[in-house]
Design brief:
Strand order of the largest sheet: 2-3-7-6
CATH superfamily of the largest domain: Butyryl-CoA Dehydrogenase, subunit A, domain 3
CATH class of the largest domain: Mainly Alpha
Number of strands: 9
Radius of gyration: 21 Å
Shape: globular
Bound molecules: flavin-adenine dinucleotide
Mean pLDDT: 97
Order of helices and strands: HHHHHHEEEEEEEHHEEHHHH
Strand content: 5-15%
Length: about 375
Amino acid sequence: MIERTLFNAEHEAFRDSFRRFLAKEVAPHHEAWEEQGYVDREIWLKAGENGFLGVSLPEAYGGAAADKLFSVVQIEEISAAGFTGLGFGLHNEIVAPYILHYGTEEQKHKYLPKMVTGEIVGAIAMTEPSAGSDLQGVKATAIRQSDHFVLNGSKTFITNGWHADVVVVVAKTGPAAGAKGTSLLMVERGMAGFEKGKRLKKLGLKAQDTSELFFDNVKVPADHLLGGEAQLNRGFICLMEQLPWERLQIAIQAIAAAQSAIDWTVAYVKERQVFGQAVAAYQNTRYTLAELQTQVQVARVFVDKCTDLLMHGKLDTATASMAKYWTSDLQCKVMDECVQLFGGYGYMWEYPITRAYADARVQRIYGGTNEIMKEVISRSMGLPSR
Ligand SMILES: Cc1cc2nc3c(=O)[nH]c(=O)nc-3n(C[C@H](O)[C@H](O)[C@H](O)COP(=O)(O)OP(=O)(O)OC[C@H]3O[C@@H](n4cnc5c(N)ncnc54)[C@H](O)[C@@H]3O)c2cc1C
């Protein structure tokens, strides 16, 4: 295997301690959380107490000012273990960065320290029942009336939606201007007219509280416009700017999950006896696993290179889209082949490989579908768009 050169001793020490935290505080509960459809709120507070939320945020907002590689370590460890109920990645590395990069000083001080302690859980609400890939078609409106905006609309498939205390909501502040009339609003739990719908039942990510959100004439104070007047109608630009890191995170998850699946399968096929010999003894098994390992190794080198580019501010959206699409496709292929090598046990929920198979599927859908990734890549090649 090619040695990874991204991480130093501090990153690896952090990896060890985060892995121990997951083993102690998450492993014993994850199955129960899958059955109830959400993680216990307490795990957010425990993660905060142990310094595992918002590690890359500046110290002024309660973070540890750690470099992004510490976040990469966390994303890898959660994904490798299959603890997909934890919405930490979205909270730490999608919602918090929006507030950090675009928020006013007051907004940063109001939300970020409590996101670091786990007292506040964050979500981002872009998708609507009739607008997912085509975000320019968002119908939610936030119309200015003196000192507030009146927010109307509904969102769906929102990760952390049920636990969320603060939601970055994408809405049209200038409906006639299309994408150029889009803004981001900070909507808080308890605002009159803001209701959470049911937790959605899903194929995988069973412990993740993915929800619908409804906004009925919600009076959102003007100072809840993310970034204040300076960011009015700039919401779409903010969304586009954050895409490389958001998409790379999915690729990082994909590789970590795929490598775990291979490792579990290697262990299983060595033990499982069929026709008087280990499943591992069959050439088909060995060649299948050799092919999968080769592909995951190749993909990991590419993703590590993308991570390195990100660290230097050089990761572009098309390259991040390649990483997202290629690795999530590969993840699904790995899961499928590994389930096959487990035989019937690979179809039983008690086996991690079965959960990993179910969890993998959405990776090709969220964060922009893989078809949209190919649109972005082909556009970067100078090919005409639609
Ligand atoms: C578990 C889960 C968690 C999620 N979390 C969040 C969240 O936290 N916040 C949030 O805002 N959203 C979230 N989403 C929503 C997710 O980002 C969208 O589902 C995704 O972007 C696709 O949108 P859609 O579902 O409307 O599909 P559609 O846009 O309706 O797509 C349907 C099909 O058409 C294809 N298609 C669409 N446009 C094109 C095109 N131009 N060319 C070729 N093919 C095309 C798509 O690739 C897809 O195959 C989540 C979704 C899931 C399932």
